[in-house]
Amino acid sequence: MPHHEFEVSKCIPERKLHAVVKGAEEDLTSVLPLGYLNTIPGTLSERGCAYCGAKHVIGTPMKDVIHISHGPVGCTYDTWQTKRYISDNDNFQLKYTFATDMKEKHIVFGAEGVLKQNILEAFKAHPTIKRMTIYQTCASALIGDDIAAVAQDVMDEMPDVDIFVCNSPGFAGPSQSGGHHKINIAWINQKVGTVEPKITSDHVINYVGEYNIQGDQEVMVDYFKRMGIQVLSTFTGNGSYDDLRGMHKAHLNVLECARSAEYICNELRVRYDIPRLDIDGFGFGPLSDSLRKIGLFFGIEDRAQAIIDEETARWKPELDWYMARLKGKKVCLWPGGSKLWHWAHVIHAEMGLEVVSVYTKFGHQGDMEKGIARCEAGAMAIDDPNELETLEAMYKLKPDVIFTGKRPGEVAKKIRVPYLNAHAYHNGPYKGYEGWVRFARDIYNAIYSPIHQLALLDISQDVIPTGQGFVTQKMLAGAALDEATRTSSTLRQYTGGYDSVSRLRERVYPAFPGQTAATAE
């Protein structure tokens, strides 16, 4: 697995240690890209900070809570919910964001007074909400404001409210992953065990590391309920503050995103002797295995198998339809931490996609190791790439689609590479059997969209097709899927002489230095 040096980063030789190309039959533990280290000066990283990891990723999916940041308003605005963490209380946490709006004068004279004032004003503005989380930022941490003391003062004055304090300033870790750890440990230290929940089943779980992106959590909870399992709390998608205070009474912690939430699972095991079971809600095979594991733990395997059989029979034919049309398409898998390895193998096995690159901005080396292990030889693995490295990788690898966040996705669109939002989804949820088919549909639509194909044409010389439907219409009409049919003279006419979407895109990549121009047949 030789290290890969980007042309654009030759002036920063340390970056060579943060990218590798997977070789055949290599020991992954011996050579991995360096990860979860402080950002190298000069690389213009696109990482999030620890405060972002605590508030934006884990804290604010909690639905019945006033989330207030003690710091400049920019910190709050940057972490307002751009992810689709929906909830069943009219999405209160998506509609509002709160900040103390610290200014220079507060840095000089302190801001504990303005924090208390803001807390009282927030509770007054939303009298039905009795719970609050306060997030520390770099500014309030550097001047030493005692947030916990202010929170306790308010709780003494207002006995019906409860406040959680998360001390996770931006500098608390190399990336947002440091904030994940901070809020996990703070929650179990401050709040777990302070409420006694009502137990209604012999099978009780905490669903941990699940953030209800476009309804992911609801899909999984439905499966659990059909198995007769009580979901005591969800950490933290559509999660209730008081339900999460009662996590200590669960029989099992079911963990989805290990990168963001394994810390609280491990502490619950040590302090309350609650076992941890890692699952995967993405893909028919991994999801079926996960439901079986949970069923085996509680001795209800037959209930799990009944769900698997029913859902597979309903949705597998549709997945097979998409797999036939996606097979061999190249994808850059550039999502958050856990999807790196949740998706790498299963999109290949169940959709036929070839993963040509994986990357992570905040994942640890363990995440990268699992992701690389599930890729084919030749895949490029990158830790904390910047925009220029991202562009160079796309020009080199020539993917048909990338799965990433909105910022890198917009960069990809500029060079006419379609992308799917791996963080907030395009048309989710993506978990569950139907959700996995929905994901395949979004990939298909991204690659074969007639609008995308139009973007690849040169209006100065290509025939501009109108009303023909391009590749998509031919597929839906039942055209043969083999390459010979897809390069027929009729299709050549539709696409200005180019035999496929990939062939069209050949003329886009030469814009990058070192690439040679492709010509039509």
UniProtKB/TrEMBL annotation:
It catalyses: N2 + 8 reduced [2Fe-2S]-[ferredoxin] + 16 ATP + 16 H2O = H2 + 8 oxidized [2Fe-2S]-[ferredoxin] + 2 NH4(+) + 16 ADP + 16 phosphate + 6 H(+). It is an enzyme of class 1 (oxidoreductase). Keywords: ATP-binding, Iron, Iron-sulfur, Metal-binding, Nitrogen fixation, Nucleotide-binding, Oxidoreductase. Signal peptide: none annotated. PANTHER family: NITROGENASE MOLYBDENUM-IRON PROTEIN ALPHA CHAIN. Belongs to the NifD/NifK/NifE/NifN family. Its cofactor is [8Fe-7S] cluster. It comes from the Bacteria. Hexamer of two alpha, two beta, and two delta chains. Residues 49-447 form the Nitrogenase/oxidoreductase component domain. Pfam families: Oxidored_nitro. Its EC number is 1.18.6.1. This is Nitrogenase protein alpha chain. One of its GO terms (molecular function) is metal ion binding.
